[in-house]
Amino acid sequence: MRLQQEKTAVRKSLPLTMRDLHDLQLLTGSPARRSALFALANVDLPGTQEVSEAQLLHTIVEVGLRAVAERVEEESYAADAAQRQAEDTGRRASARRRRPDWADES
After folding, report:
1. Chain mean pLDDT for the chain
2. Which domain range does residue 87 map to?
3. Which residues contact 41 (CB under 8 A, 6 or more apart)?
């Protein structure tokens, strides 16, 4: 996937703390961190071309949104698994209380 394939629909103002600015500077100045970010976003890292601050911020947002979606999916699977386990426990308990078919044979 290439960086910024979709056309920009709107530009938003983004408040940044001093910590955010520091972290952004670390990403800008570190090829290893930039490479890790783009790998997490599953996009091709622009070769020797400078990455704009806007592109970097957009990539950070994409990675964050993907992490949120994955977390929601994990929680959904965990809830489904818990529900199935509760249903299985109920079925097993019911089966243990049932009289076996062969018990009436004489």
Report:
1. 84
2. 18-97
3. 59, 62, 63, 66
